[in-house]
Amino acid sequence: MTRLLVRGQIDTLDPAHPVASNVVLRDGVVDAVDSDAVEDVEILELDRGDVLQPGWRDDHVHLLSTFASRCSYDLSDADSIEHLLERLSSASPGGNGWIRAWGYEPSVLAERRHPTSVDLDRVTRNVPTVLHDRSGHVAVVNTAAAEALGIQRQQTGILVERQDILIRTPRLAVDDLKIAAQEVFSEWRCNGIVAVTDATHTNDRNALDLLGEIGEMYDAPRITAMVGADRLNGLRFGEIRRGVEVGHAKVMPDVEGVTDLKALVRSAHDAGFPAAIHVMDIDTLEEALAALATSGAVTSGIDRLEHCSLALPEQLDRIRELNIAVCTQPSFLTHRLPKYLSELSSAEHRWLWPLASLVERGIEVTLSSDSPVVPANPKQWIEASINRPLGSNEAVSEELAKHMAAVSAITPGLPAGMLVIANDFGYRPVIGRD
């Protein structure tokens, strides 16, 4: 097969060979870097200002939630509950008769609280309404929605981590999700994202198949999808289902603290899955480390901590001792800065979203967005990693930040579809994704 020689400025992100003048592609993969090949090759000269580099990997997203957010009434600009209600008052029910809204952040609302069912009832009347906060972990329902869901009228209508209830809300039409996916994937391509990891703890066979169906229809990034640790049901770590790779077993601690993390991690390991545990505070991190320490060795892959947003130095030492990877979201520091300044102590600011401390200990770190919570924009992750608005001692170099955000360094064997050409106008694939 004819080889393609791409010639110009090449940023490999390989510490051993960071800059190259050309890359040879053959059979859909990188064949050589800085090759002397001149015969039997097609030559692609990069334009002035173009840079060939690895594409970015968003290593923790929620795909279906991201698509659903595009199908919902966006309240992310609300700065008070009154403003939120004013915006919501103009929302119309969807085809299923419900109003679905999302995106508010209680820490930036003037009242510094979640809206309640009493608030929603003022503007939604008898139309069932569900409002999701930006994190995706809290939803508020009005009285009509509570009745439709068969739950008792609650004083607040606030549901925290109650997917068992919210699953009874009418599902969005698959066609609507597909339209949203096309829009999302187009934006992500412009941001240079070529691979993603879906970290949704409710993923099961049906969710994987739906993601595969959507990915087949559009030019999707390469998708790896975690599966709920309680929903493995004969799936195999690393298998491919309709183009989607089965990833880690996701473990989500519950707010009441009754989830048996040790049992879930052990069952995941017994099924051949490494575990990925959602960790957002010091106490949960302590439980997660105890669970991983007593679960027995994992036979494939390595265990992960998702977020690890607060950690004590001694806990970071134990993460290294247990050979656990961390997927973190540095751009939370910019998107949620008011929340951290108002709700956390100065001591907690020093422990918030560790990065340099992880790298210094030799811990494997990847970067991500947690989309739709914050935008899937690698430039923001990298900028927040270099110039942190809090905890400047945890800043890393641009080279390190890019390495943690890239799908891989450019080395022989890397699929050519994982490469992008970058310039001032964004990113484009060097060839079609294979």
Structure characterization notes:
By secondary structure, the protein is an alpha/beta fold. It folds into three domains: 3-54 and 420-429, Urease, subunit C, domain 1; 57-63 and 173-405, TIM Barrel; 73-166, Diaminopimelate Epimerase, Chain A, domain 1 (Roll), CATH 3.10.310.70. 31% of the residues lie in helices and 24% in strands. A hairpin with a 2-residue loop joins strand 2 and strand 3. It is globular. 43% of the residues are buried.
CATH superfamily of the largest domain: Metal-dependent hydrolases
Identify the quaternary structure here.
Answer: single chain
CATH architecture classification name of the largest domain: Alpha-Beta Barrel
Number of helices: 16
Terminal CA distance reads 16 Å
Strand content: 15-25%
What about the largest sheet?
9 strands, mixed
SSE layout and pairing:
Layout: E1 3-11, E2 19-26, E3 29-33, E4 41-45, E5 51-54, E6 56-61, H1 63-70, E7 73-74, H2 81-88, E8 99-104, H3 117-124, E9 129-133, E10 138-141, H4 143-148, E11 158-160, H5 163-166, H6 174-190, E12 193-198, H7 205-217, E13 222-228, E14 240-241, E15 244-251, H8 261-270, E16 275-279, H9 282-294, E17 304-307, H10 313-321, E18 325-328, H11 332-335, H12 337-343, H13 346-351, H14 356-360, E19 365-367, H15 378-386, H16 398-405, E20 419-423, E21 426-429
Parallel strand pairs: 1-4, 1-5, 6-12, 7-8, 8-9, 12-13, 13-15, 15-16, 16-17, 17-18, 18-19
Antiparallel strand pairs: 1-2, 2-3, 5-20, 9-10, 10-11, 14-15, 20-21
Helix pairs in contact: 1-6, 2-3, 8-9, 15-16
